[in-house]
Amino acid sequence: MKIRITEVGPRDGLQNIRVPIPTEAKVRMVDILSESGVEEIEVSSFVSPKWVPQLADAEEVFSRIRRKEGVVYSALVPNMKGLERALSAGVDKVAVFTAASETFNVKNTNATIEESIRRFVPVVREAKGSGLMVRGYVSTAFHCYFEGRISPQKVLDVVNRLFDIGVDEVSLGDTIGRAVPEDVRRLLDVVLKHYPAEKVVLHFHDTYGTGIANVWTAYSEFGINRFDSSAGGLGGCPFVPGASGNVATEDVVFLFEQSGVETGVNIHRVVEGAGVIVEYTDGCVRLQSHISRVIERGRL
Ligand code: HMG
Ligand code: MG
After folding, report:
1. What is the domain count for the chain?
2. Alpha-carbon distance 106 to 167, whole Å?
């Protein structure tokens, strides 16, 4: 079974970097990642620029990237305004996002879970009417910084609501990167009783170094083959303390390819895409040293 990767670095990766990244660098990063073999690239977010100034140039990024045939270029939208912007920019797919923790959802979107889902009803209808695919994110699907452990039943309730309003797939997010394989088992045991594995994507952050173990558990024990990951392990949500990078795309590709499972992704292109960001992060020593290590590994 081939692994299908959504590269979220240009969105999840760049939304959490404090230094400004020029539009030109974002475009270069996406263009390199387009040549890597990933099936989908989450390019940016059409959210309020007051909330996420790092991605305020979403339109410009979309207008300047070189689109490669066969690659799906997607973006986050929180409301109708975001959808209108996304449609004018010519996105292929949009993602609405809510959470399984009320506290996190209010901090992230200024809305309760129910309010956010009600907001999505016209968004999903219009997006589908315009021929777009729609993803629904459920953040804090395992643990929440504010509310602690989240019950799988609570996640299933939100997943049900998202499929009821017409999303094509859900992505279950370990927003603060705290899940371990046993958490993955507990959640997938419940969700996969109701939905086929093809409808479920997993989105691991890697705060405690368990991201790769979680990916392998989901694949080898539950047949999940769709994962979100970020070139260079960039990433994190600005609205929760301690949310670090996504599981790195190059690590996911290495894991599967070395285990004889096809990803179709060229690890060198992924590392090159991440490397673009280094040039623009003078003073951001942690990020630079991480990416330098990644580039070094890419050369091996
Ligand atoms: P609000 O302040 O309640 O909304 O924000 P509002 O409707 O009152 O709007 C406030 C201002 O923003 C207004 O401007 C609106 O026009 C403008 P003003 O009148 O003050 O000049 N505005 C917009 N502008 C451009 N595009 C828009 C838009 N919407 C409103 N779409 C809102 C509510 C949802 C908009 C806000 O909370 C927001 O944008 N949140 C985004 C948060 C975010 O992007 N978080 C990170 C992504 S989620 C994540 O990282 C998790 C994930 O990776 C999975 C995981 O790891 O678990 C996906
Ligand atoms: Mg994320």
Report:
1. 1
2. 22
With the most atoms of ligand 1 within 8 angstroms of its CB, the residue from 48, 84, 145 to mutate is 48
Distance CA 28, CA 96 (A): 26
Asked if 236 contacts 203 with a C-beta cutoff of 8 angstroms, the reply is no
SS3 for 272? Answer: helix
Q: Mean pLDDT throughout 210-239?
A: 94
> Pairing state of beta strands 143-144 and 148-149?
antiparallel
Residue 160's pLDDT is: 98
Is residue 284 part of the annotated active site? The answer reads: no
CA 50 – ligand 1 centroid, Å:
8
Decide: pTM greater than 0.85: yes
Closest atom of ligand 1 to 116 CA is 34
What residues make up the domain containing 83? 4-299
**CATH classification at residue 204:** 3.20.20.70
Q: Which of these, 177, 176, 223, lies nearest to 199 by C-alpha position?
A: 223
CA distance 149 to 142: 6
Beta bridge partners of 75: 44, 94
At residue 242 the predicted structure's pLDDT band, cuts being 50, 70 and 90, is: confident
pLDDT above 80 (res 295): no
Which runs of consecutive H residues, i.e. helices, occur in 35-179? 58-64, 80-89, 102-109, 113-129, 152-164
> Which long-range contacts (C-beta less than 8 Å, at least 24 apart) are formed by 150-157?
150/100, 150/101, 152/186, 152/187, 152/189, 152/190, 152/191, 153/190, 154/100, 155/100, 155/187, 155/190, 155/191, 156/190, 156/191, 156/194
